[in-house]
Amino acid sequence: MLVADETEAETIEHLNEAINARDGSALLSIAGEMHYADLAHHYENLDDEERDFFLKTIGPELATDVIGELPWTLIEEALQHFKPAQLRIILGNLSDDDRVDIFQIVSPENQRRYFSLLGPHDEQLTRNLLKYEEDTAGGRMTTAIGRITADMTVKQAITVLRRDQDSAETLARIFVVDEEGRLVGKVRLRDLAFHPWPTMIHDIMENADERVLATVDQEEAARMLSKYDLIVLPVVDEFDHLLGVITYDDAMEILQEESTEDIEKLAAIGGEQSELSYLNTSVQSHFRRRVIWLVALAFVSIFSGYVMFRFSAVLNQAYVLSLFLPMVVAAGGNSGGQAATMVIRAMSLGEVNTGTALRIAWKEMQTGILLGLSLGLVMGAFILFLLPLFQVPQAIPYPKLAMAVCASLLIQVFSATLMGSMLPLLARSIWLDPAVVSAPSLASTVDITGMLIYFSSARLILSL
Amino acid sequence: MLVADETEAETIEHLNEAINARDGSALLSIAGEMHYADLAHHYENLDDEERDFFLKTIGPELATDVIGELPWTLIEEALQHFKPAQLRIILGNLSDDDRVDIFQIVSPENQRRYFSLLGPHDEQLTRNLLKYEEDTAGGRMTTAIGRITADMTVKQAITVLRRDQDSAETLARIFVVDEEGRLVGKVRLRDLAFHPWPTMIHDIMENADERVLATVDQEEAARMLSKYDLIVLPVVDEFDHLLGVITYDDAMEILQEESTEDIEKLAAIGGEQSELSYLNTSVQSHFRRRVIWLVALAFVSIFSGYVMFRFSAVLNQAYVLSLFLPMVVAAGGNSGGQAATMVIRAMSLGEVNTGTALRIAWKEMQTGILLGLSLGLVMGAFILFLLPLFQVPQAIPYPKLAMAVCASLLIQVFSATLMGSMLPLLARSIWLDPAVVSAPSLASTVDITGMLIYFSSARLILSL
């Protein structure tokens, strides 16, 4: 029962006891009752020796399911625990898309060794699928689907599908191809189950309009599945030959991965998203993914420091100016980051693109003015009506200070909002990932403009 | 054909022409060839009069599908375009979960009116479903599923299901209940299609271990669907009575919504996530969702300003110190934001929780030290070896400056990393949303510590 957390915690405890005691039969009986996705999750927490005992005890059949759920960084190592005879079983049992994923990541040496363990049919299939890039629809699809032709009867179709039922990953949708293998339609399994056997397939099949080319990005395929609420999306070549399908569970995984990637890039975390869970990612890898951005951004902020250094005379003239310097600087980073985040997420969801740049710019210009005005007026009022109560020693009349702060906030927030919204589109238009315009990199950039705007308006207004 | 973008753009153009010319028959023929999800997407871009023409032309049947795909902010308004007789058709045609969603958002007055248009069965069903909170599994489930009992034969099961096939949202999994309606197992449609008719259901059914209580959060249900690669997840009450199912497409939608919410909160964008696409969200609404955070954060940064104001004497002693002030401040915001983002995403994916706080703290302390040391050493080296080349006028010996900058970067990055990782856990432990610890709010906070750390270490080292 997966509802009760207590029971789940107990099961995990028993599993741990069995592994610690190296009690094979206890392990087998507990593992048999658990879902392989939970076993894979637990496997991450074991040490090397425990993993060896675990994998050898559960045997190649269950190991196949567990390995299919592991993060890819752990798979090659996991396979090393098995003898060739067992490996042959595991590689044969894997679904074709999982198998290709594994072949894509292992060392060339291991790839050769694994090929030698595959039967001729699986080897040919794997070599064909390896032609597609890992992050395309073709690289993600499974070829294990039910195929029938329009001139079959329901009875003939059922006979064909019954033969393939163990290898077919899904029969929720069955695709109809012509004699050349081109996709011409689809039927639902329920249509076969509920129609009389002599019914012709072409009388009950529907159009299969939704389809993707094998070469499109996996994210585009996943978005299509999500938009049209599809269980499976057929993948075709440029001549409409049916190559395979992307399933709903792949789509869910792809969309989650892409969201995580966006979130991490927005926070200036670099490199490949780790498939390992947070706690199983090593300190070294956490460090590596953050340090480069951190150092790069630090160098950018030397320029802000330089602006401050050059304008120290202005600060000297009226120390009270330093009270609002961090605010003007931060307001740019915050408003720019908000705008960039909105636009980047909208791009990820396929809502906007570089073609709509002008409409976005117009919307953000209006939003930026409203935001800058509100913030400027609030702070102007604060300086005029509340600041005098604090009796801060100062050399500038309150109205002049209020004007300088209000004007710089308006300019800073307006320009940062516009920059934040346009930079991701600019990045995309020169084929860069929009999310490299991370909020911190944007903040570091507008820090410089913020200092310039603030000191210039202060100097101008002081001289009035 | 949805592959070719050209064709899609052309279709949209023809659709627009038909709407502009108020050409009903042209609109009908184009709309008939488009997917309703695309029609719903296009509907957002129409003005009021065009929407009226569009909805009235396509008629209640197609309108039902389109309305099911609209963002909820547009639905109530869309329903106003129909006469009672048409509304009756639309409300009756909607799937039960979509219908409940609509009843949840409309005005009480419209809710009463819509109830009066429902048949007695639909009314009872809707009232039952309305008992569950909108964001729970019960509030999201559909009750339109195939149910059979274990003592049926395959033939009897097929007869029952054939009767229900039009109303059942999915037959990919068929659930087996006992005479009390308690969930006891599941069969796949293919098992019915491929087994001989006299086979007993209890001989071919499998366990249905995965299930959720109707009261659990929808996000938890969606994560379970994703983890176990399920097409449908049964929803039960505390006595295991089968109430309905959550389907894979609901799960995909829920996970996408939650990701968007996380991303927006991390960037300090407040309020309910808008279901409208970016371009269809009004400037007022964009403004409202950003302004409160922006003003609140601005007030926080007055404290940074105050620290700077108090330490102006130190800055005055050596202007060159201002060169590195923005860097130390920004390094805290950046490293803290990175840590907070990693932990918040890991919490969203269910990987970590408050129980693992100590392990997270230990990992982030190590990562923070490594990051602070690297950044400190890089900048120390920069000051010692490169800064002299720029001939910046300055009153502090280079080694002292390097020491001050290096020490404050180490302390600032270490403490910000630790704070960034712990604050989301702290928020969760006092039942706040972890994502309210947005990167900008964290940055504003560590700005203050950064100033304090920098000025204190500078003063200390200058006095040596």
Detailed description of the structure:
2 copies of one chain form a homodimer. By secondary structure, chain A is mostly helical. Chain A is 66% helix and 7% strand. The first copy, chain A, has 21 helices and 6 strands. Chain A has a 3-stranded mixed β-sheet with strand order 1-2-3. The first copy, chain A, has a 3-stranded mixed β-sheet with strand order 4-5-6. In chain A, helix 3 packs antiparallel against helix 4 (48-69), helix 7 (96-105) packs across helix 9 (120-129) and helix 18 runs antiparallel to helix 21 (439-463). The N and C termini of chain A lie far apart (76 Å). The model of chain A has no long low-confidence stretch (mean pLDDT 87). The interface between A and B is large, with 115 and 115 residues.
